[in-house]
Amino acid sequence: MTFSIAGYCPETGMLGCAISSSSICVASRCAFVSSGTGVALTQNVTNPDLGPLALELLAQGESPEQVLDAIKQADTDASWRQLGVLNNRGEGVTFSGSEALGIYATAQGENCLAMGNLLANEQVPQAIVNAFEASSGHLAERLLQALEAGLAAGGELGPVHSAGLLVCAEPKWPVVNLRVDWHEQPITELRSVWHNYEPQMQAYITRAKDPANAESYGVPGDE
Questions:
Q1: Domain membership of residue 186 as a residue range
Q2: Measured between alpha carbons, how far is 38 from 171 in angstroms, rounded to an integer?
Q3: Which residue among 58, 93, 141, 208 has its CA within the 20 to 30 Å range from the CA of 218?
Q4: Which long-range contacts (CB under 8 A, 24 or more apart) does 176-184 make?
Q5: pLDDT tens-digit profile of 138-181?
Q6: How far is CA 151 from CA 144, 189, 192, in A?
Q7: Which residues, other chains included, contact 102 with Cβ-Cβ below 8 Å and sequence gap of 6+?
Q8: End-to-end CA distance of the chain
């Protein structure tokens, strides 16, 4: 019910993911990122507990392979899961359980990994990886381009309804945390939200770090 990408930018240290699904609110359950640590994706028949656990183990210095083994052992229903773990060096690993739904596949590339289930075809994750590797610019933009490429390659077999974009950088909180929880064209809508958020993103970071020198809020009542 989901296709996704996790990516790392070695130039900035940013980590992030983009995800879409026929299900409502996919990013609230399936996408997990921690600054300086890594990315965890847990999808198919989802167990959201596995995302925070994976990030905790990465923070303790475990390799992605060790983390994947540990979270599979922690979940007695691991055969229903599709999992991806990417660390802060761009090293990743994926897993698709025997009960993964429909056509499912994964792909790995330089500083990225992609996964999907109930796909239109097995080539979707590789199309996502190819687009990410060919892209440049801000990590959020690269992730979104990769998600769009997955949709263009066939995406999920049925219509998608939700999408999300999550990126962490130097601050502990996500500098990009955008969601479209229910929409007829959620990836297109996510692109619109990113288009509006991108020019404001740095201002919000400045307000957190140095409010005395932050630019005007630009709202009624702000002198």
A1: 2-213
A2: 14
A3: 141
A4: 176/16, 176/140, 176/201, 179/25, 179/27, 179/28, 181/24, 181/25, 181/27, 181/28, 182/24, 182/25, 184/159
A5: 999 999 999 999 999 999 999 999 999 999 998 889 999 999 99
A6: 11, 13, 16
A7: 117, 118, 119, 157
A8: 48
Task: Identify whether 221 is part of a domain.
Answer: no
In a domain, 80, yes or no: yes
The CATH code of the domain that includes 8 is 3.60.20.10
Answer yes or no: is 155 within a domain: yes
Q: What is the pLDDT of residue 223?
A: 60
Summarised one tens digit per residue, pLDDT across range 185-208 is 999 999 999 999 999 999 999 999
Q: How far is CA 187 from the centre of its chain?
A: 13
Q: H helices of 98-212, where?
A: 124-134, 139-152, 186-197, 201-209
Residue type, 210: D
